[in-house]
Amino acid sequence: MANSGESNRVNFRLRLATGLAVLLLSAAGLFAGGSGLNVVVVVNQNSTNSVQLGNYYCERRGVPPQNLLRITNWTGGNVEWTTSDFTNSLLNPLLGMLSSRGLTNQVDYIVLSMDFPYRVVQSGAQSGNNGTTTALFYGFKPDDFGDSCSLPNASSNAYAASEGMFRQTPPVAGSNSWLVTMLTSSNLAQAQAIVDHGVASDGSFPTQTVWLAKSSDIFRNVRYPEFDNAIFDGRVTGNLSIARTNSDSPFGLTNLLGYQTGLATFNILSNAFGPGAIADSLTSYAGVLYENNGQTTLLAFMNAGACGSYGTVVEPCNYPQKFPSPEAYFYQARGFNLAESYYQSLANPYQGLIVGEPLAAPFARSPNAAWMNLSSNAVLGGITNLTLQCSASAPNHPVQQVDLFLDGVWLQTLTNLAPAVGNQFNLTINGCATNYTVPANATLQSVAADLANVLDQPAFVLQSKAQAVAFGDRIGLQFTDINPPGAQVPVTVSNAIGSASVLTAFVTASGTNFLDTAACGEHYNYYVTNPPQIGDFLQLIVIKTNGQVVTTSVTNTVGGTTLAQFAEALFNAVNTNALLQSDDGLVIEDVVMHEDYSFVFGPNDHAGDFNIRARGSGWPRSQIKACFSGSPTFITQPAGTNTLDDNVSDLQPRNHLFVTAGVTNLSLAFPLDTTTLSDGSHELAAVCYEGSHVRIQGRATRTVRIQNTPLSATLTTLAGAPNTVLNFTLLFSVTANTNTISRIELFTTGGSAGVVSNQFSATFAVAATNLGIGLHPFYAIVTRSDGKQYRTATQWIRIGASEPPFGLTLTALPPAITWPATAGRSYQVWNATNLTDPFQLHATVTPSNVAGLWMETITGMPQQFYRVYAP
Known about the structure:
Blueprint: E1 29-31, E2 39-44, H1 48-61, E3 68-71, E4 80-82, H2 83-100, E5 109-113, E6 119-122, E7 128-131, H3 132-138, E8 179-183, H4 188-201, E9 209-213, H5 227-237, E10 241-245, E11 256-261, E12 273-281, H6 299-303, E13 308-312, H7 327-334, H8 338-344, E14 352-356, E15 368-372, E16 378-380, E17 383-391, E18 399-406, E19 409-416, E20 424-429, E21 432-437, H9 444-455, H10 458-464, E22 466-471, E23 474-479, E24 491-496, E25 505-509, E26 520-529, E27 537-543, E28 549-555, H11 563-575, E29 586-593, H12 598-601, E30 607-617, E31 625-630, E32 635-637, E33 642-643, E34 654-661, E35 665-673, E36 679-690, E37 697-706, E38 713-719, E39 723-725, E40 729-736, E41 741-748, E42 751-757, E43 761-767, H13 768-771, E44 774-784, E45 789-791, E46 795-800, E47 809-811, E48 816-820, E49 827-832, E50 840-845, E51 851-855, E52 865-869
Parallel strand pairs: 2-3, 2-5, 4-6, 5-8, 9-10, 9-11, 11-12, 16-37, 36-45, 39-46
Antiparallel strand pairs: 1-37, 6-7, 13-14, 15-17, 17-35, 18-19, 18-36, 20-21, 20-24, 22-23, 23-34, 25-34, 26-30, 26-32, 27-28, 27-31, 29-30, 31-33, 36-37, 38-40, 40-43, 41-42, 41-44, 44-45, 44-46, 47-48, 48-51, 49-50, 49-52
């Protein structure tokens, strides 16, 4: 820089990196049946990826700092551990942490952050292999007789298909249970993308389609009989696009909301899924993530953009109960989050692993919550009256419960509106009227069960032609008269205050009439056995719904014909018969001739089975009749003439009734006794819950300062800044305004970061490497000798490996350059006398706090150009 009157000319180079994004929780947030307040994130302290991913999840989901658990004693890799290692390294520390931090009754979700084993193994009399997530979900479950292909009764999950509140419907009564997922992927960036997809999905109400694929793999496509039920439930709900396909590969598909199939290997595009998607394949080893198993693992779905997936960690055999039901998508459409939807869809999940972002809730409708007349940083003392306003997202999603949290820990329930005794439901189905009055001590589940019993009274069913089944807070209605279309069967419901003083109990219907099915009727498990002889025949006689009789038969004319060859001739003849091609015909499908799969059934098994499906959709079309028979050589089943309505529950017109409790608008005034709380800075969070079993949360937060005594303290950052480098040691000073102090404790992500006793001031050193890359809060709690406490204001520091963008300011003379610095990072100042000349290193500066400063100390220099690097 020239020391003359001409303009200062400085050339600056900016090092690109991420900027500071301090976490703020000042607005209402959207969370399904859980939020960051209900999550514990577990990190493996011996893995930098695990720690960084855990920090990232805490930031993105607003997980309080005390809800992070550091596991320090596991160095055994990410594949498997014994039940003893699992218990000592994970379960027991988790239980101790929840108890010591007062979180036992608050936490429902556990997130295992990368680099934990995915398989738990146990040998001996009670041997078996479990997925780590499911072992933590409901305890380790051994195999029957040491055989992983068994289906132990003890592995049943009572939460499955419950549509219940998890706390009130645990998978195993009387034991610890959490909704557990693992966050992991092929690398850290992809694992972080899973989190981003989950957060982006919340309340997005996607219109993309879920595809249920019936593959040609006869041993892995066994979930397809469940497809129509999920499709029907989704259609009745009205906000879910779900369809079935016959496909052997998802390759080429994009923008899906979900995909369920049964395949050993497949390829998939990297952009296959939209936010909130869940996808899985029924195969043996999709949960065997980091071993060479010859099958496509669930990571293929995760790397293609899915928020969650499932796979087994040991050979399970093809029990559908061990894999997610397609109903997972219906639960998701109701508003349940990913973890709730998956675990409700798993009848016997013990050998499985769930990977994903548990809180992702694309169909969640959040209540609105707002503090009234409580400004940010308001000073509170004594008994303070506070006012909160909650409002429902829609009339059929009332607000039922409000909880108050202090600094991320549950403090009290402010209100919980039960269904009011005396409230009345009035229902008319198919012109038949009935009513129900809410009794004392009612819950949503008991009301739904009672109402279903009322609707199922024989006299009422005889008139209404409808049957009811309770599923948690939902009642499924099915119309049992085949003659009128569902659109001609009206359903009306209304709610009355009855003898109560307030109306808090509601029943609503999905629609004003029943909905007709899109499914086709089927008859399952046709069977034939024994090799054919010359002159033997097989035939199928079909009686169409118009009375027309169509007979198709084949006769064996040559020796040496196998049953598979002969039966295939009949199947082809039926499926190409012109009289059976229209929507009043039928088709033979799902053929499994055992001779074609001798490697499974053995060389001497001369049998086969198949299904027959109506070509036309709807219940009336399923009344086409089929009679399968053959020569005396063969044994054929079933006997007689049969309609194609084995799946009648998927064919009958359907509706849903939903029971809720609460009010549409809730103004809540309550006293807060601040004298029972520590002085200082606090975050008050009011959480409003939607009044169904989905319990979607809305949150309003305020930072306040409580002051009931003269006690105060300050937290000062001596070395460190809002941005700090990873290899730096942070220094903090805490000073109280009195010397009668018994304890000073510094807190950050994961809990306590240090304690000093019997001093009124203390200095704490915190190695940034112990915390890992991410955003971290720091605050201190000072305890006076009489037990009174003071909590300092929270300071947020982002620890990073790369430099965030920074601007430079030049002042003269002598020339000085200042910039917002990352504490602990070395900056290089380079200079040259001409922009075309090579720049030379001129000085090095290592700021210890937020301000970077360099001043030219050499005088009389010619014109200079400067560059500042963050190497």
